[in-house]
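User: I'm writing a short report section on ligand binding and want a predicted complex to refer to. Could you take this sequence and alpha-D-glucopyranose and write out the structure as tokens? A short remark afterwards would be nice.
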Amino acid sequence: MKVTDTADLWWKTAVVYCLDVETYLDSDGDGTGDLQGLAQRLDHLAALGVTCLWLMPVYPTPDRDDGYDIVDFYGVDSRLGSLGDFVEVVRTAKDRGMRVIADLVVNHTSDQHPWFQSARSSRDSPFRDFYVWRDEPPDEQAEVVFPDQEDSVWEHDESAGQYYLHQFYKHQPDLNITNPRVRDEIAKIMGFWLQLGLSGFRVDAVPFFLATNGVDDADEAFAHPHDYLRDLRAFLGRRSGDGILLGEVNLPHEDQATFFGGTDGDELTMQFDFIAMQRLYLSLARQDAGPVAEALTSRPAIAHDSQWATFVRNHDELTLDKLTDDERQEVFAAFGPDEAMQVFGRGLRRRLPPMLGGDPRRVRMVYSLLFSLPGTPVLFYGEEIGMGENLDVPGRMAVRTPMQWSAGVNGGFSTAPADALPAPVVEGGYGPEFVNVEAQRRDPDSLLSFVSLLVRRYRECPELGWGEFAVLEQPHAQVLAHSVTWEDACLVALHNLADTAVTVPLVLPDVRAGTRLSDLLVDGSHEVREDGSVDVPLEAYGFRWLRVVHPGDRRLV
Ligand code: GLC
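Assistant: Sure. The structure tokens for the complex follow:
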């Protein structure tokens, strides 16, 4: 390994943790989580081994889409704290070895944003062209993103006397990025937050943001939206050197390749692998590794500096939109059979442990798989302790309930009366009484201890971020056997997706006399025969991380 090849590419081997300040820790007892509360819990995140925090929107907002509806891109909502508190969080995180990125939501603003208020007031407003207007909606319309709430992406505005484009909720008018003044403003927003210490952005809704739907006269400069994404990446590079753009692009893999800038890698630095995530759930439902293996092997080639972000849950609906209707029904039947567990006809509003019937073996197997896949893992707050959802909370908010710190009042999240919280805490078997950080910190057998171990091992195995992925041949459909190889390091991972024990016969390449597989999670090792064959037993929902150790290797195992 040459230092110049890998140094500074921190995102290739990062552990990302997404949280909403509003639901993390309320430090002043007003019911809302805040930046000072987060600052107090950075040690929890550092101890877990997180290296990059992703903050969901903290900007001033009327809060009709949990902060994704912004009225001021240059501020912090007063419920959460101040810009000063923000800088304290970034600085303290840095002190603990963690970088911070934040949501960059520039596909749209809130309809309360002063730009929109001005734009709608008059055709002569200097902000009129910040948005996309039409006298009549076009015959051909894009599909709405939230079909339970909206039936068109065009909304008539009385005072404007025209229709405006909104690909999301009607209270989120789309910005017109064909307007160079809008593009300047976006660069300024990025520059502002980078100056305050951010290491980049999770870029919201990228394909929507780049689409020029409805703009007939997209100017010359905007004829090629991907040139613009390239410009943004270059701007980020100039301002911050090693900042990243982690893009939300839920598209087929071949389209994602374009958003990376192909093998030039000069557009988004990272993208979530929505395809592998969805195929993983199909695999879990079928107890058949085929779908997820196929998704991983069909990832397009990406540049040396680009990276996939892997995840099993995020803050939105667990979308299954890229499965066929039949496949989606299989996953619904397995993990969310009641209509109340589903949303938008395409996703689930549950967290992983309840979907898996609370079976700790199966939950651990899935997290083991997440951390052993090639890419950079992203956790959503509460996953480290196995939080569940609250289906009484409407829509996607069911999984955005307060973080469960202790068995105390409001799960230790806030001392305010329960009705002052942003969402009710989870009740029942996944409530704070049974699932909380405080109890799990003291328990070496807890999920928190287990996830911390996975994070530690992931960080010790740079091949997981850098390496070549291969599916290893073996006879059991219920098992995913894969290897990740980088330079002279090779990790073999086995995951049994089914509830029956199996023995997995493997044949490993490049074996020398005395090569063995050393288990990185539990005590033990397996001798590999001279022909490269080895049999590894797996319990029901069992898993192994096995380091290939050749005689004379000095790697720590
Ligand atoms: C993204 C966010 C989602 C939000 C939407 C509109 O999809 O993940 O939470 O509602 O954009 O900003």
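A remark for your report: Residues 107 and 209 are 4 Å apart (CA to CA). Residues 65, 68, 105, 168, 204-205, 248, 316 surround alpha-D-glucopyranose (CB under 6 Å).
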